[in-house]
Amino acid sequence: MDERIEIKNLNVGYGRKQVLFNVSLSIKKGMFGLLGRNGAGKSTLMKALVGLIPIQSGKLNVCGLSNNDKKQIRSIIGYLPQEFNIYLNMKVDEALEYLGTLSEIDAKTLKSRTEEVLELVNLEKDRKLKIKALSGGMKRRLGIVQAILHNPKVLIVDEPTAGLDPEERIRFRNLLANLAEDKIVILSTHIVGDIESTCNNLAVLNGGRIIFNGPTDEITESAKGYTYKVKVPKTRIHDFKNRYVITSQQDFGEYVETRILYKGKPENEFKRVDPTIEDGYLNLLYDIGGTK
Ligand SMILES: Nc1ncnc2c1ncn2[C@@H]1O[C@H](COP(=O)(O)OP(=O)(O)OP(=O)(O)O)[C@@H](O)[C@H]1O
Fold first, then answer.
1. What distance in Å separates the CA atoms of residue 242 and residue 83, rounded to the nearest whole number?
2. What are 8-34's pLDDT values in tens digits?
3. Residue 59, pLDDT above cutoff 80
4. Where in this chain does the record put each ABC transporter domain (predicted)?
């Protein structure tokens, strides 16, 4: 079976409100990042892929299955929605048994698969805990368990690291990267760091349109030659902020060290630096010309 997701000229909306406009993407095995501001349409795209909302027009093909084969598509996709809060009063193992049965996994396979996956996400010792007693990070890992119980070819995770502490965030990213060795994993997020450390390819969605689709390095390169560090005296900072796109700043008392994106002729005190993926992303989001 073809291990690719092909999306062509996809249009999706809610009632009269159109949210996705002519989205086209080709996604292959490994980790793929979908980056965009809040409200850009990431969750809508994820839901359309899983078949939870209808598409207005366009084509979807998931590993050889077209969007008309909804039931079959669901059987090869695992999905962790943004809000994952199921069966709070059930114990971890009870919930998995229930979910596995709903997915029509036979009892013997379910038992061995549950063991395997709980171990993979390091929750094997917590199987007797009630779901409401799990921490945010544990709950997210349980979310992955329910999504991969039926061993899908595709795993879709929507904003999975929001609210996690740094250690749990790294653990979660590594887990996804391991899973991506033999699956298509789509990670939707507005956190640039999540993409930077795990995804070789990404798309940026802005206002329901794809504004970038390509290798992660390429987005970083887009800000090359336009990224500067500038030490700005406190007395000038207000005016400076009005003129330039500041991507970060650090206060050193007498002066503020800023990082800016700027395409005009630099001033003497501008020190050119190598861009990060965040600079590249912001360069795309803002239409950066000369000064603001
Ligand atoms: N059920 C719905 N009915 C009507 N409009 C909706 C619905 N769900 C989402 N929208 C709208 O669609 C647009 C895209 O929302 P979506 O949740 O897909 O964005 P997102 O990129 O996932 O954002 P976030 O990171 O905040 O979840 C927003 O304007 C939102 O208000």
1. 38
2. 999 999 999 999 999 999 999 999 999
3. yes
4. 5-232
Q: Which numbered atom of ligand 1 lies nearest the CA of 40?
A: 21
> In this structure, what token pair is assigned to residue 8?
């062509």
Q: Tell me, what's the pLDDT at 290?
A: 45
Rounded to an integer, the average pLDDT of 46-59 is 93
For ligand 1, residues with CB inside 6 Å are 14, 17, 19, 36, 38-44, 82, 159, 190
Helix (H) / strand (E) containing 10: strand 4-14
Q: Which of 10, 12, 14, 55 to mutate to test the pocket of ligand 1 (most atoms within 8 A of CB)?
A: 14
Pick from 198, 194, 269, 272: which is nearest to 228 by CA? 272
* 3-class DSSP state of 132: helix
Taking residues 26-47, report their average pLDDT. 94
Three-class SS of residue 130?
strand
Whether the per-residue pLDDT at 122 is higher than 90: the answer is no
- Enumerate domains of the chain plus CATH numbers: 4-214 (3.40.50.300), 222-285 (no CATH)
